[in-house]
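I'm curious: can you give me some protein's one-letter sequence along with its backbone structure tokens because I've never seen that pairing?
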Amino acid sequence: MFTDVKTVEAKVRAAMDQGPVTPYYTLPLKQVYAVLNGALASEIICVLRYKQHYYMTTSIHQEQLQDVFKEQSRVRGTRS
């Protein structure tokens, strides 16, 4: 059990100020950020494409196609 709340709060604040990366993380951060940002951008583009297909669909099978594109947009949107 924690007896000194102020000490625990101070340690937590100090850890938060240092950021989410621990000293043991050895990968180059700029490269990691670039890869993660690229993956996120790719997912966002996919969601936007499916939404565009959903709104632009016109054919005899419009309703079925819209359902497919809407579902794919929703699925992709929850992953990003």
